[in-house]
What does this fold into?
Amino acid sequence: MKKSSHTSVTGLAWGDEAKGNKVDELAEQHDGGVRNNGGNNAGHTVVVDGEEVSTSQIPSIVFEIKKNPQKWMYIGPGSVLDMPALVDEGEKISRAIGMPNVFGRLRIAANTSVTQPHHIMQDLASGAMVGTTGRGIGWVYRAQCERVDGDRRTDILFGDIADNPDHYFDLMERNLLVELERLHGGFYQLDKKQIDEIAAKFNVSERIDRQKAAFSRIQHCMEFDPLFIVKQMRSGQRVLFEGAQSIYLGKKTGITPNITASDTTPGALFSSLFIPMDEFKIRNIGVTKCFPTRVGFGPMPTRFGGKQAEDYAMEDGGKRHVRDVEHAEFGHRINEMLRSDNDFEIGRALRHETRNYGVQSQRPRCAGWIDAVATGNAVEIAQIDEIFLSQVDFLRLYSKIKSGMRLGVRYTINGKPIDNFPMTDARMRSVVVENEYFEPFDKDLSTMHSQDEIPLNCMRHLKRCQELFGCPITGIGVGPGRTQKIKLNI
It folds into this structure.
């Protein structure tokens, strides 16, 4: 196993694997935490003193800084920066943990692209088909490639604003005015009600004033040195790289169009942060969970309920079946649904019981069973050294499901086994998963602290997972708390 004082944490499925919980555990062992992909379209939830606290753009190491003020955070140029959202997030975290100045130990790369109001408008007007969060993230990455639209720059860097704030806030306003004109002119082919709803959210002066106010709060975080991280590593600082989204949401490792717009692999750290590959080793930890989930549209071979579940979860853009709605509808008959012969009903019940709703969007996540084919492929793509398997305590729910514990072990298409991972939508949707089944257990794992306490049926399942993943499972999560973890050696 690779030895290194630096660590990356990467999701091995379709997001929401409880990466934040693992990052929170590792934070104590590192001096700095880095976010380098995505934006405020991703969220990590950590339980601190019994309270759930969510981070989005701010690295999760923030929770260690109160105890150790020498620790630091960095938002790298592989990310995109929503300045008002960052300020709101920082204030919320400050209140939650009693730390007056979260931004005092934060550095933000000057060459990080800024989410502008018109990017959010573009996303709201056109992102429904893909199932985006409506926060403009993909449009910022698009602007990085587009660069200009006519005589206007569409990509503004954090450092640009510091160099000439009046010019770039004027440009930001101009970009928004052009996009409003397009919206009202029928460019997005929306009906009048949709146009009016979107336009009502974009008072130009209010939007730009919010940008200016946010910039004034965080401009002291500006880091102009592109080798900041390399210099920290060379000085002996131990760096924790916190991945957002996951392998199968990556722009080249996922299946288009239902993906995110950034590179979600650990390899991207070397290129965008300029880390010399021959000088530094980074230990790559992959995180996945016992009931993998996916939010939004897109293929997922082991999804309970298949296409029916996918379409149901995304009704009204994912806003119709949020947790409170589902709880009122069927929270009183969960056991009945778990005992059903209908995978769609089982999936809905599992989502409710495992609390699988988007951290930022609150959209329902579709639940599935462990897919060893997908996980093993992700291990190879990301060059994972070890795996942390989260939410193992929820495997107990299989004791209420007639089939027992399921594990997807191979793919077939048209009745023929395939020896590769499908990378197109149609091919992936044609996959049939062959499963192995294990006797369930009905024992609460949430209070356990050692491998010796784990029920035999659970250990059999974990050992088979490790064998098929092709990578050691070195730890499991048995609850949301910071100490609810068990080290494994199997």
